[in-house]
Write a structure and sequence with these properties.
Blueprint (H helix, E strand, L loop, with lengths): L13 H18 L11 H33 L2 H37 L15 H14 L1
């Protein structure tokens, strides 16, 4: 039995090339969106910004990870596998950083709640010798 010979064209249609380029440009535009924060910044604003940035980075990295994994499998390229594993490690590290950020925020809030509202701490500093301090104390006792 003789195999059939199939004539295959190796040319890629122009519309597929243009569609691929448009998808790449859309991804690049999406990844390059930057949010500029203006005005006074508080700890809560900084926390929200850091949290959003880390989350967005993790989501974008997951998308890239999928594409990189496919490319590594298709090309059987050791460098791509190495990049794939490094990106996986970075995603895990970013997730850990996000968790640590929450822990730090909770610790800060707990410290703030420990100090009762309206509580004022007064720190006095006396410049002088211990002899001067003793004289001040004695004078206060004598006045009372």
């Amino acid at each position: 039995m003789r195999p059939k010979i199939v004539n295959v064209s190796h040319e890629v249609p122009e519309e597929f090339i243009q569609e691929g380029q448009e998808k790449k440009l859309q991804k690049i535009e999406k990844y390059n969106e930057v949010t500029v924060s203006e005005g006074n910044s508080s700890a809560q604003d900084d926390f929200d910004f850091a949290q959003d940035t880390i989350r967005e980075t993790i989501l974008k990295s997951n998308e890239v990870l999928q594409e990189l994994g496919q490319a590594a499998i298709l090309n059987e390229n050791g460098k791509l596998y190495e990049s794939y594993s490094q990106l996986m490690k970075n995603i895990v590290d970013s997730s850990t950083t996000l968790y640590d950020l929450h822990a730090k925020k909770k610790k800060l809030q707990d410290q703030i709640q420990e100090v009762p509202a309206g509580h004022t701490q007064i720190n006095n500093l006396i410049v002088g010798s211990t002899k001067d301090l003793l004289e001040l104390i004695e004078n206060k006792k004598n006045e009372s």
